[in-house]
Amino acid sequence: MSEHIGHLIHGEIHCDSEQTQAVFNPATGAQCAVVGMASTATVDQAISSANKAYPAWRNTPPAARAQVMYRFKTLLEENSDKICELITREHGKVLSDAKGELARGIENVEFACGIPELLKGEHSRNVGRNVDAWSEFQPLGAVAGITPFNFPAMVPLWMWPSAVMCGNTFILKPSERDPASVLYIAQLAFEAGLPAGVLNVVNGGPDVVNQLIDAPEIQAVSFVGSTPIAEAIYQRSSNNGKRCQALGGAKNHAVVMPDADLENVTSALMGAAFGSCGQRCMAISVAVAVGDKVADALIEKLKPQIESLKIGPGTDNSNEMGPIITAAQKDKVAAYVAQAIEQGAEAVVDGSTIVVPNYESGYFFGGTLFDKVTPEMTIYQEEVFGPVLVVVRVKTLEEAVELINDHEYGNGTCIFTRDGEASRYFSDKVMVGMVGINVPLPVPVSYHSFGGWKRSLFGDLHAYGPDSIRFYTRRKAITQRWPSGGVKDGTLFSFPSF
Ligand code: NAD
């Protein structure tokens, strides 16, 4: 019988008689578990648990909350092998990449440990005679988070540690494609001393998400996933009068200048385009070569490296690239590749036919490289979310920036150059939320915040870091005086002045 992945409600694993959905190991194509798709009643229980836990948690001193986070961080480190095995089993990424993902998630937990400092308000003495004023940041209540498949451990850790450390309670709806590591991590949080109900995990699909967004008890919604769903969730949350941040998809460009060190650029692009099989929202999927000479030299260097990529199951650490998440996504990537050829792109390496010996039923797709891609082509316009890198040729840096700014997405980008002036021009003018200068994947560290521009993010605040404190709290401005011997001013019909 398959392992059954349930929900975590009020600190207990919960399985109802609900529907289930199969979870597959993408390296073998075999079913490895089933995940419960929460019924309406189960989601209601999660909401009521989060609501019940809120008043006591809100009043727990931040320093006491932080103690839970310190213990949780230690448990994450002690159990990292088990967590990474679960990530690799269901997502397919190589174990070393799963370790990297978890390490970035742990950084977010470390950030949350500093919450007593971060929650400090602002204070002004004597704003009027004997009048003091301050702002404090109060939690919102029960909040919800919905996360994607591609970072099953890290993206939930972007959200709930900050949210609960601010004094909120949290309901997490992870991806139904790889739910095991998330549930295990949530259990570790309770082992660390998180009170029942402060974090609940419900598995399921769109129905569960919609029930959470529509529940009057849920005060705010954080979402990370594809752009069409992000936009719909942002709209629905806003229509319900809720605060929402919804991070969406991407098409990340790397500009290669004529003075760049092409050895370094090639290594950087290999990792950034093909790491995690291209299934990262910060993956580089477009190389913008400034000048034909750069383009020709880059293609010459990339081609043999892509052809010799080591592809296979993530459990073998000598592999560089694992499989795609599902058979359906693999077919989608193959369709994008076929369409690009039809539309006139030049396939330098076509990975659509690779077979990994002994893993013939796995969802593997080889590294793919296209040259002479133009902005009108679908492969340029849409997010492929697979191991496909395209080269677009431009004549100048200005043209490169214009190209990037015209794209609907604006998540990440980078420039490779030795020229300070060019990089300054680029970082100033480019309409993208996260910019790398000779850094291919400029994912901000946990004490900065993460977010794209344009259709890569709906909402005002970015995820994790300082913005998360603002997202998960509400400002309250308090003005106070203590008149001795009673109020002596008499009635005032105008604004008081000094
Ligand atoms: P997805 O949009 O299919 O799913 C994300 C979450 O939304 C899942 O929990 C899923 O169950 C839920 N969902 C799916 N359809 C829904 C619907 N109709 N209504 C309500 N909820 C629904 O995304 P995915 O395939 O899991 O993840 C890959 C996508 O996420 C890519 O587009 C990638 O760029 C994006 N992503 C973005 C970031 C970022 O920070 N901007 C980070 C990671 C992933």
Provide an overview of this structure.
- It is an enzyme of class 1 (oxidoreductase).
- Its EC number is 1.2.1.27.
- Residues 17-478 form the Aldehyde dehydrogenase domain.
- The protein has 498 residues and is an alpha/beta fold.
- It has helices at residues 40-58, 62-78, 80-91, 95-113, 115-118, 154-165, 180-191, 206-214, 227-239, 262-274, 292-307, 327-342, 378-381, 397-406, 420-429, 465-471; strands at residues 3-5, 7-9, 12-14, 19-25, 30-37, 122-128, 131-139, 142-146, 169-173, 199-201, 218-224, 243-247, 252-256, 284-290, 346-349, 368-371, 388-394, 409-410, 412-416, 434-437, 453-454, 457-458, 473-481.
- It has two domains: 39-248 and 456-478, Aldehyde Dehydrogenase, Chain A, domain 1; 252-437, Aldehyde Dehydrogenase, Chain A, domain 2 (3-Layer(aba) Sandwich), CATH 3.40.309.
- A seven-stranded mixed beta sheet has the order 15-16-17-14-13-19-20, with helices on both faces.
- Strand 4 and strand 5 form a beta hairpin.
- Helix 2 (62-78) packs across helix 7 (180-191) and helix 10 (262-274) crosses helix 11 (292-307).
- The model has no long low-confidence stretch (mean pLDDT 96).
- It binds nicotinamide-adenine-dinucleotide (NAD).
- The site of nicotinamide-adenine-dinucleotide has 27 residues, from helix 8.
